[in-house]
Amino acid sequence: MPKRVDHEHRRQQIAAAVRRIAADRGLEGVSLNEVAAEAGISKGFVQHYFASRDDMLRYATTTLRGALEERIVARSGDGVRVRDLLIALLPLDEAARDDALVANAFLVRALKDPEIACHFRTGHRLLRDTVAALLAAARADGDLVPTVDPATEAVLLLALVSGLADAVLLGYQSGDEAIALIDLHLSRITATRRNPR
Fold first, then answer.
1. How far apart are CA 153 and CA 78, in angstroms?
2. Are residues 116 and 74 in the same domain?
């Protein structure tokens, strides 16, 4: 019997090589030859799955969310909490730092590639909606200041974390300092429960 080939697995393997190169050298270092060498396969093999460099980059963009979702689940354990989700967005270890570098490289590419930009908008919308839903649930449970609008606060929190992530990447904010600032902001919107007399 002929061997069954998992084509999606092969595409994922190529996309992982793209991400490794992008983390190390940016997207300017990504070529069909470099990706083939990084993945340990032939250039023809890469071309079998992707007709062009642009096709390869566009596909690789669709794989960026996976690592983030794994980090969120690993940090949250039994249930996703807003704080855990926000901290998972920070480049606090080598893998998260590489993911942030790759995402930033693709973000620059998205400015001129509508398809990649669409992937970014979709991912951001899903993230924003998740944060808003978590905040709405916290408000319903009485854990959030009642005047906080979950949808607006989700946008603000993601903007805060985006800026902090860049600050950590550039080295003018430590991971601990970034977490402390997230905690400070969350403390301002968290409802203080009064002890009954």
1. 24
2. yes
Report phi then psi at 190, rounded to 5: -85, 135
Where would I find the H helices in 40-81? 43-49, 53-61, 64-76
The tens digit of pLDDT for each residue in 114-159 reads: 999 999 999 999 999 999 999 999 999 999 999 999 999 999 999 9
On whether both 94 and 116 belong to a single domain, the answer is yes
How many domains in the chain? Answer: 2
- Quote the CA–CA distance of 28 and 7 in Å, as a whole number: 26
Whether 171 and 92 share a structural domain: yes
Of the three residues 60, 80, 99, the one that is the final residue of a domain is: 60
CATH number of the domain encompassing residue 17: 1.10.10.60
Q: Read off the tokens for 138.
A: 């916290």
31-72 pLDDT tens trace: 999 999 999 999 999 999 999 999 999 999 999 888 777 777
Contacts of 55 (CB under 8 A, 6+ apart): none
Q: In the chain, what's the furthest Cα-to-Cα distance?
A: 77
Contact 124, 106 (CB under 8 A): no
